[in-house]
Amino acid sequence: MIDIKPIDPAKTGYNLYCIRVKKGLKVREVCDRLHLSKGAVYKWERAESLPSLKHLLELSLLYRVKIEDILIPLRDTDR
Questions:
Q1: pTM
Q2: Which residues contact 17 (CB under 8 A, 6 or more apart)?
């Protein structure tokens, strides 16, 4: 049986922040490319909300990472 754990907004937000910074993008650039408000991206990165499936797909394409890389906590070696 597969052990499926709920998505942790804090860890997902941290992953989104780390991936964005690692890719060298500013919040404004992400907003402009995905037609989002800065508030939406800040809420995700601050764990106040989670991106929708549509936005997860768009983020994964923009960042060129798998969706699970956004949702699954980073290992210490990845930071």
A1: 0.85
A2: 45
